[in-house]
Amino acid sequence: MNDLAAIPVAAVLLHALAVRDVPGFLELDEDFVIAHPPHLPQDKALDSEHIILCAPGYVSGSVAEYTGGLYARADEGYDGSDYCEIEMVYEAQPGSDLMAHAAACAEAVAEWFASRRTRPESSGDESGADDTDEVRTSTTGVC
User: Where are the alpha helices (DSSP H) in 29-97?
Assistant: First the structure.
């Protein structure tokens, strides 16, 4: 158990994302992990669609302290300062198995990003036109 006391929850979350080839980073000021699409550099991640992984009160704490409550929420970003919630991507079931929660969360995050990449192509008309602008407008229009 002493080994777990030295491992931060954020490290477990970042590792789980890396296993799924999803880039992420720790947002120290807010105490959560941010996942973003692989094609975006970290400094642009908050300007577009990204996912916040949060275990309230535990991200900077150790694995040994984790008692549950991990969730991942997709947000749309505007200039890195304003955000609009798109949808909840993952919520942990009760229990304190952080490793299982992190793996399931990372899988849900990877699947969510993958579905966003394929959405514009599948929404094109018969000519194969890409409706990216139309999809983006309808997504951000909710905000």
Answer: none
Q: Is the dihedral of CA 17, 22, 28, 32 positive or negative?
A: negative
Bridge partners of residue 76, in order along the sequence: 49, 84
Other Cβ atoms within 10 Å of 105 Cβ, number: 27
Contact assessment for residue 74 and residue 87, using Cβ atoms and an 8 Å cutoff = yes
What's the pTM?
0.77
pLDDT above 50 for 132: no
Which of residues 47 and 14 earns the better pLDDT score?
14
CB 19 within 8 A of CB 35: no
pLDDT per position as a tens digit, 56-75? 767 778 888 888 889 999 99
Instruction: Please give the full DSSP string across 15-53, using - where no structure is assigned.
Output: HHHHHTT--EEEETTTTEEEE--TTS-GGGGGGSEEEEE
Residue bearing tokens 């080994």: 3
